[in-house]
Amino acid sequence: MNLVLRRVAAMLPALIGVVVCIFVLTRVLPGDPARTLAGDQADPSVVAKIRTDMGLDQPLHLQLVRYFTDLLHGNLGFAWHTGHSVASDFASRLPATVELALVALLIALLAGIPLGVISATRRDRPVDHAGRVFSLLGASMPLFWLGLMVIVVFYNKLGWAPAPLGRVAEGINPPTGITGLYLVDSLLTGDFVAFRSALSHIIWPALCLATGSTAIIARMTRSAMLEVIGQDYVRTAVSKGLKPSVVTLKHALRNAAPVIVTISGLQFGQLMGGAVITETVFTWPGIGSYVVQSVLATDYAPVQAFTLVAAVVYLAANLVVDLVNARLDPRIADA
Amino acid sequence: MKRTVLALAAAAALAVSGCAANANSNSNSGAEDAGDTLVAAYSEGGKTLDPAEANDVTSDTFVVAAYDQLVTYARTEDGGKPKAKTDQIVPMLAESWKASANNTSYTFKLRADAKFQDGAPVTADAVVKSFDHIKASSSASFLYKMAGIAKVTKVDEQNVKIDLTAPNHLFLQILPMYSFSIIDMDKVAQNGGPKWLATNTAGSGPYKITKWDPSTEAAMARNDSYWGDKPKLRQVNVKFIAEASNRVQLLKKGEVGLALEVPPKDVQSLKAADGVTIDSRAGNKILFFAMNNQIKPFDDPRIRQAVSYAIPYDKLLNDVMKGQASPMKSSVASSTPGFSDAGYTYSHDLDKARALLAQAGLPQGFSFDFTLGSGFDDWNDDAVLIQAELAKIGVKMNIKKMARPQFLEALETKKVQSYITRWTSFVNDPGYHLGLLLTSQGSSNYANFSDPVVDKAWQQASTEPDVAKRNKLYDAAQQEINTKAPWAYLYEYNIVVAHRAGLDGYTSYPDGIVRFFQLSVTK
Questions:
Q1: Which UniProt keywords apply (chain A) (predicted)?
Q2: Shortest Cα–Cα distance, B157 to chain A (Å)
Q3: What is the band of A141 on the pLDDT scale with cuts at 50, 70, 90?
Q4: CB of A33 within 8 Å of any CB in chain B?
């Protein structure tokens, strides 16, 4: 418990720093949101009026103070380009992004860890080489290109994937909302029509999103495993006559786990960022596509809120990593 | 640990038993006939539903679906395909109108049967309050000014009188615009004021906006108690798909019935696709290469003319736009009533360009800065091709790229040396077009063109009630502009709408807005 408090306290300055940085950056960069909102045929008096309405004519430090005051009251601001409060926009979109990132993380873990373990135990054999090539490709492929290719091949040519138009097919009602995660909600309500549709819709963007993380998790697992496999106690375990699978999974993998957990936690943060691109390509109704729209419309508040949420997710992922590692290896908790 | 698992299992069991009727337990859900439903693919989700604040194609589309205006544009046929006739104004919510003898006052008589979507009648009060809303708005207030409206008064329940500051032929041209929609302002007041209109509608139009989420999709349902012709499509879903290639693929597969903003390079492949119809017709959106008339050497008309002779017009039309554009021969689009290409002599002729440079005392050429705004692929290609041609006559064009918001801000300083930009005249009239772009006072005259001949002709035309006399004045202004060449004209964009075969009734309007109530699907 002490550890949790200590970590949360350490997070606060980082969060404040992030908020101030992004606040100043969005405003210092050229590009006038009032002009964007007014359209390019409006005359300057109209633009000036909008600027006043938005409070953009105030000095920067006063705007910042007002922003922090709002933030402390739980007010994330107003999204000019949607006409809703940022909080309500986020509430309706965040579950879609979280679901996508979670499914992608699940895929990355289920594929990456075994791939890494196999590569390590069959070092320099064909499987290892294949894994290396996959990792290289997976880590270096641009996400938007991969997404477009998946759509061209699996939707357009082969017809395996559904139309990239949201979370369930046209004409199917979204499951009754409980958690906002369609896969979970549809199972909870026994709605298998929605479950099947939601699964077929999420699997393609999730696969794309997971590719880079799978590659990195596989590589890190491999190197962590190799380090452990060379240790004396592993040799001892082998010489005791334990089955190879027991040695690999119980002795080696268990001791390589902290590294794998750490890298997976960081990957979750990466996945939230990658969602911005994947969501735009697949028309996924999450906060990623929303923040892209906001950037294009020079709409400050949603961009700031997204940065804040991303920072919180990143820090929270770090915290979870620390807690899990402390459990795996009590020595870490004292460090 | 065990306890948590048990609790979770219990919760799950409860949830399953408690929700026997789930969201899809009706077996016929989603089985509605597709014949009266249309799915459309747009690139952007719009910014507002408030008629007086809307100024992008998507927002405007929802406004014309949910609202009516006092009057509207007539329709005509062009090669068997319906198109708008913007210089002929026909009744909508107003069944008739009368102008005073000196053309400074108009009285509109409202239809007796017109109702807002929730049943309240469309009254003279609603019209007066709607005009107040437009006047107080950020976006449309300048149109209100441009229409020259002095006062809007209720004569009786069914009649409204609009007084103008002076005779103004733009007035009747501006009234059919989406900005001048008639709003149920009493309903707006009940809901806390005009801000409510940004995400809600209170109109009398043919469709109700049932969902609007700018980053994903919107939905409209037919207003079954519409006072006018009943729309054929019961339901229109609009998907916002930023990626152009996705819009093209979805249309090819029949997943969507209509797609906008199809890139020119995809038009050919779509034409060859089964069951897809491309409707590509001249609009009034123009693209021009502006040279700042107050920054050397572009202060010399001969230099600007030389640039106009160096533009590789055919390459731009055929290689960049793949034929989805047509030559531009005046500062005003050729489909705008009153267009004239008098004085336009330019073609791709490098010898003439060199001669003009020599006359202007710059036979060796010169170097200048060109600012390229982001967001449109064709601008990028155009700039590179023009750069290569100019290099042949010794002119060095330094391309500086800028993100769109920065670009718009830079233009406003009126200090950008040269740039290309597009323009759609929402009011399809040279008075609007030239007034904003090429008169000394024009708020979008970012190239600082200032010419007494043009200013005077425009001023006289703005209060001239006779069409023939007015067009003569516009003719003189255009001839002067064509000769002085403040811009090199690049092309006029076609309005390209790609749709599935069997979609009928699509009418091309210069504003590029699809009126869904005119469409029907036959299969």
A1: Cell membrane, Membrane, Transmembrane, Transmembrane helix, Transport
A2: 33
A3: confident
A4: yes
Categorize the per-residue pLDDT at B3 as very low, low, confident or very high, splitting at 50, 70 and 90: low
CB of A281 closer than 8 Å to CB of A254: no
Residue given tokens 């390589």 in the structure block: A256
Q: Report how many Cβ contacts below 8 Å link chain A to chain B.
A: 170
How far, in whole angstroms, is CA A88 from its chain's centroid?
20
Give me B243's structure tokens.
Answer: 């990626």
Q: Examine the pLDDT at B56 and tell me if it is beyond 50.
A: yes
Q: Which of A53, A80, A165 lies nearest to residue B255, judging by beta carbons?
A: A165
Task: Write out the two tokens for B381.
Answer: 């290609």
Q: What are phi and psi of B58, to 5 degrees?
A: -65, -50
For residue B231, pLDDT over 90 is answered with: yes
In this model, does residue B29 exceed pLDDT 70?
A: no
Nearest CA in chain B to A290: B215
> Would you list the DSSP string of B259-271?
EE---HHHHHHHH
Residues of chain B numbered 431-460 and touching chain A (CB < 8 Å): 436, 443-444
Angle at B348 between CA B269 and CA B311, to 5 degrees: 70
Which token pair is B393? Answer: 């006559």
Architecture of domain A88-332: Orthogonal Bundle (1.10)
Bridge partners (DSSP) listed for residue B504: B520
Question: DSSP 3-state assignment of A84?
Answer: strand
Angle at B132 between CA B126 and CA B138, to 5 degrees: 130
CA dist., res. A277 & res. A289, Å (int): 7
Length, in residues, of chain A: 335
Eight-class DSSP state of A58: S
The residue type found at B183 is I
Report the pLDDT value the prediction gives residue A334, as an integer from 0 to 100: 58
Lowest mean pLDDT among A54-63, A300-309, B55-64, B233-242: A54-63
ipTM reported for the complex surpasses 0.90:
no
Average pLDDT over residues B153-173: 93
Q: Which of B15, B242, B423 sits opposite A280 (nearest CB)?
A: B242
Among A42, A166, A173, the residue with its CB nearest the CB of B24 is A173
Question: DSSP state, B198?
Answer: G
Which residues between 75 and 114 in chain A have a beta carbon less than 8 angstroms from any beta carbon of chain B?
A: 80-84, 92-93
Q: Which residue has the tokens 């003189």?
A: B476
Helices within B96-137 (DSSP H only): 124-136
Tokens at B11, concatenated: 């919760």
For residue A335, give every residue at least 6 positions away whose Cβ sits within 8 Å of its Cβ, in sequence order, or none. none
* φ, ψ dihedrals at B522, nearest 5°: -120, 135
Report the alpha-carbon distance of residue A116 to residue A264 in Å, rounded. Answer: 13
pLDDT at B161 over 90: yes
Burial (Cβ within 10 Å: 0-12, 13-18, ≥19) of residue A244: exposed
**Average pLDDT rounded to a whole number, residues B450-470:** 91
pLDDT tens-digit series, residues B235-268? 999 999 888 888 999 999 888 999 998 988 889 8
Distance in Å, alpha carbon of B372 to nearest chain A alpha carbon: 15
Give residue limits of the domains in chain A. 15-86, 88-332
Residue B321: pLDDT band with limits 50, 70, 90: very high
- Tell me whether the omega of the peptide bond preceding residue B297 falls within 30 degrees of 0, making it cis: yes
pTM over 0.80: yes
State pLDDT tens for residues B375-418.
888 999 999 999 999 999 999 999 999 988 788 888 888 999 99
Task: Kindly state the tokens that stand for B69.
Answer: 């205006």
Q: Which residues contact A59 (CB under 8 A, 6 or more apart)?
A: none
Cα(B229)–Cα(B409) distance, integer angstroms: 44
- Decide: residue B120, CB within 10 A, 0-12 exposed, 13-18 middle, 19+ buried: middle
In terms of Cα–Cα distance, which of A97, A283, A198, A167 is closest to B249?
A283
